[in-house]
Amino acid sequence: MKITVDLGRCQGYANCVAAAPDVFDVDDATGKAVLLAAEGDAAEIREAARSCPVAAIGMEE
Q1: What percent of the chain has pLDDT over 70?
Q2: CATH of domain 2-60
Q3: At residue 61, does pLDDT exceed 90?
Q4: What 3-state DSSP class applies to 47?
Q5: Could you list the residue ranges forming a coiled coil in this record (predicted)?
Q6: Which long-range contacts link 34-40 to residues 24+ away (Cβ below 8 Å)?
């Protein structure tokens, strides 16, 4: 699975962190999402992508 974060779209809502805290975090300096891991629980990652209000999270299985 390939996970991407479109930093141009990310607004730092942190919904991805709530859905998949082992995979995503929010950078203190930029306020944008960062990947902590290249893989993780697929269901959590799908929820992170679904819950992002600006559709900044992408994944390819």
Answers
A1: 100
A2: 3.30.70.20
A3: no
A4: helix
A5: none
A6: 34/5, 35/3, 35/5, 38/3, 39/1, 39/3, 40/3
Backbone conformation region of residue 27, classed left if phi is above 0, alpha if psi is from -120 to 50, else beta: beta
Q: Are 59 and 1 in contact (CB under 8 A)?
A: yes
**15: helix, strand or coil:** helix
Contacts of 24 (CB under 8 A, 6+ apart): 5, 16, 17, 33, 34, 35, 36, 48, 57
For the chain, which residues make up each domain, given as ranges? 2-60
Strand partners, 24: 35
Bridge partners for 3 per DSSP = 59
